[in-house]
Amino acid sequence: MVTNDLPVAPTLPAAHGPIRGRLILLGPAFVAAVAYVDPGNFATNSTAGARYGYLLVWVVVAANLSAMLVQTLTAKLGLATGRSLPELCREHLPRPLNRLMWAQAELVAMATDLAEVIGGAVALRLLFGVPLLPGGLIVGAAAFAVLALRARGFRTFEIAITVLLGVIVLAFAVNLLTARPDLSAAAGGLLPRTAGTDSMLLAAGILGATVMPHVIYVHSALTPNRIPTSGEAERRVVAKGLRVDVLIALGVAGAVNLAMLLVAAASFHGSGIPGTDTLEGVHAGLAGTLGTVAAVGFAVALLLSGLASTSVGTYAGEVIMQGFLRRRIPLVARRTVTLLPALAVLAVGVDPTRALVLSQVVLSFGIPFALVPVVTFTRRRDLMGSLVNRRATTVAAVAVTGLVVALNAFLLRQLLA
User: Fold this and answer.
1) Per residue, what are the HEC states of the chain?
2) Measuring CA to CA, how many Å separate 255 from each of 36, 75, 228, 358, 366?
3) Rounded to an integer, what distance in angstroms lies between the CA atom of residue 12 and that of residue 5?
4) Taking Cα atoms as reference points, which of 268, 286, 287 lies closest to residue 277?
5) Closest by Cα among 78, 112, 167 to 312
6) Angle at which helices 95-128 and 292-325 cross, to 10°
7) Residues ≥6 apart with Cβ < 8 Å to 258
8) Cβ atoms within 10 A of the Cβ of 131, count?
9) Which residues lie below 8 Å from residue 19, measured CB to CB, with a gap of 6+?
10) Could you tell me if 207 and 367 are in contact, meaning their C-beta atoms sit under 8 angstroms apart?
11) pLDDT in tens, the chain (417 residues)
12) What is the rounded CA–CA span in Å between residue 102 and residue 226?
């Protein structure tokens, strides 16, 4: 069980003053948010903008709104039950189903690590000319330094992740102002439409890169017992603070995702610049169209994204195994196992951007396995108490889950045809 190292009083947030009392409720969603701007997002959003211009703006916006709903339910689930989603699955699901849930969650964690390590390796090559395979090893090893901050208390880890997220935000804010996208065309992109199977596949990748299954498990483990409460009134105060945490953190992540697509659309769509549907091509294209500062900012943001998100991904693996199986393995062993697929992809020379996009499609197939239990548990009054879902919330969550399942079924049919 994850706890927070903050010295808190029984009554919150009033016991700490109007400002500090609210600030101490922030943090878990920012750890989750960094996974929403991981290298997979760089690949899918940049590819979408370069290939289709502003066509898929609606997908980014819809995915982020869905993520806000999902992460709010996830945070509330941990607060109300005092347990993570994997722990609840172990307690309430039949053993064979629980084992199946664990197996797919581990595959999701590996697909996540694939995107994060590859993205970081590409960034090192763009910045310093480091070959991809050694770059992957460097990113994998560097994640331990970020994870080591947890030994100083989880608040330190949250702050470090938030700082990395802030640098990513700054880089894309500068690039967005420089690119000057067509705002009217971007607004037109809010109308839901696609341009064939390829755009649908990319839309699924955007969804998989935004509504991340592994971070659903992580977020549910960050909120139990974070702040001691005595009674339903205090629990509702903390729940409100967690909702604000989600809105701010995922609002920031959503803005970054949208900026990725808008910069690529404004800079590359219809320009005839070759290779701008790859990370390397985006970097080179930004250097040519917006200047060296924009290209370096993109690469630095990509590197920090890979480093931060792979740290969160490794922590997700711990939460998954501990929750579903009530077992732990040494961190070095877990890191090695999840790192191997990414290193294998880098070693055989698979196109990094293509591997990133496909990894996000894999993640989109893992979303229902996390969403269905979250919706099921949060609608149960015996588990949630006064924090049980309202009917409208459950309806919205079921609609999101149904949309994801329908989209994945369509894609599976297309891929097997």
Assistant:
1) CCCCCCCCCCCCCHHHCCCHHHHCCCCHHHHHHHHHHCHHHHHHHHHHHHHHCCCCHHHHHHHHHHHHHHHHHHHHHHHHHCCCHHHHHHHHCCHHHHHHHHHHHHHHHHHHHHHHHHHHHHHHHHHHCCCHHHHHHHHHHHHHHHHHHHHHCHHHHHHHHHHHHHHHHHHHHHHHHHHCCCHHHHHHCCCCCCCCHHHHHHHHHHHHHHCCHHHHHHHHHHCCCCCCCCCHHHHHHHHHHHHHHHHHHHHHHHHHHHHHHHHHHHHHCCCCCCCCCCHHHHHHHHHHHCCHHHHHHHHHHHHHHHHHHHHHHHHHHHHHHHHHHCCCCCHHHHHHHHHHHHHHHHHHCCCHHHHHHHHHHHHHHHHHHHHHHHHHHHCCHHHHHHHCCCHHHHHHHHHHHHHHHHHHHHHHHHHHC
2) 11, 21, 33, 23, 24
3) 15
4) 268
5) 112
6) 160
7) 57, 60, 61, 64
8) 11
9) none
10) yes
11) 444 444 444 445 544 445 555 566 678 899 989 888 988 788 889 989 999 999 999 999 998 999 999 999 999 999 999 999 999 999 999 999 999 999 999 888 888 888 889 989 999 999 999 999 999 999 988 887 887 787 777 778 888 888 999 999 999 999 999 999 999 999 999 999 988 878 887 887 787 667 778 899 999 999 987 777 777 888 888 899 899 999 999 999 999 999 999 999 999 998 888 888 788 999 999 999 999 999 999 999 999 999 988 888 888 888 999 999 999 888 778 778 878 888 888 889 888 877 877 776 777 778 889 999 999 999 999 999 999 999 999 999 999 888 878 877 776 676 666
12) 25
CA dist 73 and 336 (Å) reads 32
Task: Please give the span between the terminal C-alpha atoms of the chain, in angstroms, as a whole number.
Answer: 44
pTM for the predicted model, two decimal places: 0.88
Structure-block tokens of residue 64: 């982020």
CA separation for the pair 66, 393 (Å, rounded): 12
362 backbone dihedrals φ, ψ, rounded to 5°: -60, -45
Residues across the chain: 417
Domains and CATH numbers, the chain: 14-416 (1.20.1740.10)
Contact 112, 366 (CB under 8 A): no
Specify whether the CB–CB gap between 260 and 59 falls below 8 A: no
Query: What values do phi and psi take at 193, rounded to 5?
Result: -165, 160
Q: Is the peptide bond before 352 cis (omega within 30 degrees of 0)?
A: no
Q: Which two tokens stand for residue 275?
A: 């290779």
> 92: which residues sit within 8 A by CB, 6+ positions away?
377
